[in-house]
Amino acid sequence: MADFARHVDGERGAGRAGSIGRATSRFAPSGDHQASMADMNGKVVLVTGANSGIGKETASTLAGFGATVVIAARSRTKGEQAAAEIEQRTGRRPELLDLDLASFASIRGAASSFLARHPKLHVLVNNAGLVLDARTTTVEGFETTFGVNHLGHFLLTQLLLDALKAAAREDGEARVVNVSSDAHRWARRGIDWDDLQAEKKYASFDVYAKSKLANIYFTRALARRLEGTGVTTNALHPGVVATEFASSEDMGLLTSFGFKLVRPFLKTPAQGAATTIHLASAPELRGVTGGYFADSKPKHPMRLAQDDTLAERLWAISEQLVASAEPAASAA
Hints:
Layout: H1 2-14, E1 44-48, H2 53-64, E2 68-73, H3 76-90, E3 95-98, H4 104-117, E4 123-126, H5 144-171, E5 174-179, H6 204-225, E6 231-237, H7 253-262, H8 269-281, E7 291-294, E8 297-298, H9 308-324, H10 326-331
Parallel strand pairs: 1-2, 1-4, 2-3, 4-5, 5-6, 6-7
Antiparallel strand pairs: 7-8
């Protein structure tokens, strides 16, 4: 956390953001983002929600940097399509991992499958996210937006910590990148601790904003727990991106139509992926942890998001919720 504070002060003094190191790979970046190429040869990267949008752009660019990329997707068909496209663009075919973040059994199975192939993980990009027009629940009974955007990634990260620490121990560092959003600022009153599952009141973007606030709390609490391990973690705002996010499958037709109207004014997926790629690969960010970034530069989240007492409260509750689902997972 102190490292991030120093980084913010340094950026203010310099008046500009640092850039990713010069090209060392023969593959070109896949998108039109501003990051220079970094050397990711020999590094293993896992990206969730990588079958489309900024997740696919992130996976494609990091594969182009030379990384062994594993893309996690709920739909195998869409995952295979994304893998084929990434191979066509970079010459490197990513591995595919089946992952449904709305199911703890799927998360545990995906982690087990990954670890069977890769004892080390250098970069975990927790990218997958959704916003739903109507309230639904995960397999374990948690409200889906909270369950997928926060709790699923919370569990997945825990299951992969040993692989992250092994990469840091043997190769010098590892990183966890959490895709949050400036939408967290909409949650002005913070997380509703008395209605965490939105059972009393459900408003899609309010619930989404709180899940993005949870991503920042998770990042800060995780950073403290990883001090001294060589594993760093940072959160980011990708910008408002023209992707399949808020599609008509997830949202009502009116809301989805509204997104289509503003689509020409939004960032492209490649532009939206730039900050994720920066956090995953920039050499100058080695040791920087517990931060929040936008446009590849450090940025302060809203004041409430910087409350580490609340971050610890969410961590403890998340542990309890995961533990409470254990009997259901064992029975299944």
